[in-house]
Amino acid sequence: MKKELPHFYVGNSLGGQQEWYSRITDFGMHVGGCAAITACDCSIYFAKYFGLRGLYPFNLQNVTQVEYLEFGRIMEPYLYPRWSGVDRLEIYLDGFGRFLKDHHVENLKLAPWSGDENFFDTREIVRRQIDAGCPMPCLTLNHQAPSLGDYVWHWFILNGYEIRGEEFFVKAVTYGVGRWFNLATLWDTGYTRKGGLILFEFV
């Protein structure tokens, strides 16, 4: 069984990329804008597929890199890159929650799902979120798996799952591409300090 949510392309890039921002003029976004990028992607997704058009001020039918960059600058004050990054779910909830409030979206609520939650409950919550049509920003801090080296201290989006026998895989979108990971591997970081997920719910 496999389910993937629709997303959007910016040129050939699946969603946005923090690397588009200049190291000189947008240094913070370039090196630490991953949280803001996931918030931008989720805002465009909900505007495009759920009709929350107040979340994106530009053309939803053709998301261009120039307009995406400008949108990221709008999002940056809400999830501005810090010295240690947006390294707690609470920071994300506060920042993106204020963005939604300022853009008069009151029926979309955010909730944290800690990386300390057990794998089986996490597998079920991921399935339920995707089945409800909601992507999930995911924070990974440190991780022992070499395959996740590019995802350390990084926010990305989960927007699909696939059941392969006894194993449960998730699709991670970041850096302009989607990659599939075994959720058991992704969730078991091997470190005490965890990241987690941001859940969405329409009320």
Characteristics of this structure?
203 residues; alpha+beta; 7-stranded antiparallel sheet; two-stranded antiparallel sheet
Tell me what you see in this structure:
- Strands 1, 4, 5, 6, 7, 8 and 9 form a seven-stranded antiparallel beta sheet that branches. A two-stranded antiparallel ribbon has the order 2-3.
- It is of the alpha+beta class and 203 residues long.
- The mean pLDDT is 96.
- Strand 7 (167-174) and strand 8 (177-182) form a beta hairpin.
- The radius of gyration is 16 Å and the shape is globular.
- It contains six helices and nine strands; from the N terminus they run E-E-E-H-H-H-H-E-H-E-E-E-E-H-E.
Q: Outline of this structure?
A:
Helix content is 33%, strand content 25%. With 203 residues, the protein is α+β, with helices and mostly antiparallel strands.
Return the average pLDDT rounded to an integer: 96
- Classify the beta-strand content into a percent band: 25-35%
Largest beta-sheet characterization = 7 strands, antiparallel
Q: Uncertain segments of ≥5 residues (pLDDT<50)?
A: none
Query: What's the total count of β strands?
Result: 9
How would you describe the shape? globular
What Rg, in angstroms, do the CA atoms define? 16 Å
What's the tally of helices?
Answer: 6
Distance between the amino and carboxyl termini: 28 Å
Structural class: alpha+beta
Proportion in helices: 25-40%
